[in-house]
Design a protein that fits this description.
Length: about 250
């Protein structure tokens, strides 16, 4: 069995780490460089940095912040926000990112996935999908979860895999920040529908939720923010709990 990954997420706005509920009502969660260093020291498997307002503000990801974080950590580092070209990715990789996350730009131009995977390799390309359950359907949203699209979650996931994505970062907007657990049913369908790793995001509140996301949702990795930022679930104790429940972690 491949080891499951635990990934803290730094949502960045105006140079600070923020966290909200259902993508709204953001509150300050600390200095991103200090948090990144802390997570690397505590045994996080990877780190995700998302400049959450870059697309809405029509600007590029904060490159200097990426460089500062990369200098402080020794774990794989994924960066997203406002990435819309091969040139953007090239710059971020040179500033210390190991992988990049694309979302709104590939919804506008799906061929960008093909171009990026061809240039940099699929292992470098994470497609983030923000989706909300509306009735029986899961609708994909763009622009930081503000604009509904005509795309359906499971169809879009299959397409991004075919186009060369190496991983999918799925955030359930319905669960984000609620601390009531991940979207297990949707995650299970995703894991059965594609052959690339699924990173689960949205809803972590207890250690049991992480157990459930791996056993019920069949996710390959679990991403969380506030429970780590505010030390509600210490990373070291979370990994021990997972091991005790026969879930392989690094």
């Amino acid at each position: 069995m491949v080891a499951k990954r635990i990934i803290p997420c730094l949502d960045i706005k105006n140079g600070r780490t923020v966290k909200g509920i259902n993508f709204q009502n953001l509150v300050d969660a600390g200095n991103p460089v200090e948090l990144a260093k802390r997570y690397a020291n505590q045994g996080a498997d990877e780190l995700v940095f998302l400049d959450i307002s870059a697309t809405l503000e029509e600007r590029k990801t904060t490159r200097n912040m990426v460089l500062k974080i990369a200098e402080q950590i020794n774990i794989p580092f994924t960066v997203g926000g406002g990435i819309s070209s091969v040139e953007d990715v090239d710059v971020l990789l040179k500033h210390g990112a190991d992988k990049i996350s694309v979302n709104s730009s590939v919804l506008r131009d799906p061929n960008l996935i093909n171009r990026l995977s061809h240039k940099f390799g699929s292992q470098c390309i994470v497609v983030a999908i923000d989706a909300k359950q509306i009735g029986e359907d899961w609708i994909v949203y763009s622009a930081g979860g503000t604009i509904p699209t005509k795309m359906e979650l499971f169809e879009w996931a299959k397409e991004v895999e075919l186009r060369g994505a190496g991983e999918i970062l799925f955030t359930s907007m319905s669960h984000d920040g609620t601390k009531k657990g991940f979207a297990h049913n949707a995650l299970y369908r995703l894991s059965q529908g594609v052959n690339i790793p699924i990173i689960a995001s949205g809803g972590a509140g207890t250690s049991q939720h992480f157990i459930d996301v791996f056993t019920q949702g069949k996710a390959d990795a679990a991403l969380a923010a506030s429970v780590f930022h505010f030390n509600e679930i210490p990373l070291i104790s979370l990994k021990e709990t997972l091991k005790m429940n026969h879930i392989k972690v690094r």
